[in-house]
Amino acid sequence: MNDTLVETTKNFVKEQLKYAEGGHDWFHTERVFKTAKKISEKEEVDPLVVQLAALLHDIADPKFHNGDEEIGPKTAQEFLTSQDLDPIRTNHVANIIRHMSFKNSLDKDQPKFNSLELQVVQDADRLDAIGAIGIARTFNYGGFKNRPMYDPRIEPNLNMTKEEYKKSNAPTINHFYEKLLLLKDQINTDTGRELAAERHQFMLDYLKQFYKEWNT
């Protein structure tokens, strides 16, 4: 039943994300799914919860739904209920989706939820936000939002609130300092930290080259 449910969920997600922005499409979800499976091999987790949460984590990203932070968990919960998944696992998956976002770490009043399964999926998602693919995704989304690549006059905001983060239209390079370079130290698992180190260094090298070319 578990393998069938995972395959059914993959097909559902592929259909739902058919026209998604390139950084949050099926291929992003697939990468997160594969990385989450890899990390979970060394953690004492419920593998089904990890796989379903990884597949459904971006099923309805709030930034593409007028900031609605409940549409993703609700969509996932309704789908899993329709597949007769038990309520405990269904609610667990929904809570992972509800609480895993980086922006929630900026809200000190956010109700806390944590589990090893959340930590694994969160690590997999954050790993896809850094390194070579993370850079590509960042500029892809910046172009999607018609943001400038870089403006030396606009300094990164290193003390953003959650609301400021959600409303930001800052240049794409600023996002490295406001999020991407912070993620290495927010990884939960040993496997995730090992993978993050190389990707973090790649971003530092990229930024060094970017400024060198910009200032030529």
Q: How are the SSEs ordered, and which strands pair?
A:
Blueprint: H1 2-16, H2 26-40, H3 47-56, H4 71-82, H5 87-99, H6 116-127, H7 131-144, H8 162-167, H9 172-178, H10 190-214
Helix pairs in contact: 1-3, 2-3, 2-6, 3-5, 3-6, 4-5, 5-6, 6-10
Describe this structure in words.
The protein has helices spanning 2-16, 26-40, 47-56, 71-82, 87-99, 116-127, 131-144, 162-167, 172-178, 190-214. It is mainly α. The model has no long low-confidence stretch (mean pLDDT 92).
Q: How much strand content do the residues show? A: under 5%
Mean of residue pLDDT? Answer: 92
Runs in which pLDDT lies below 50 for 5 or more consecutive residues are: none
Structural Rg: 17 Å
Helix amount: 55-70%
Number of DSSP strand runs: 0
* Oligomeric nature of the chains: single chain
Q: Count the DSSP helices.
A: 10
Q: Give the biggest beta sheet.
A: none
| Termini separation | 59 Å
Instruction: Assign the structural class, choosing from mainly alpha, mainly beta, alpha/beta, alpha+beta, or little secondary structure.
Output: mainly alpha
Features:
single chain, 216 residues, mainly alpha, 10 helices, 60% helix, 0% strand
Summed up:
This protein is mainly α and 216 residues long. The chain has helices at 2-16, 26-40, 47-56, 71-82, 87-99, 116-127, 131-144, 162-167, 172-178, 190-214.
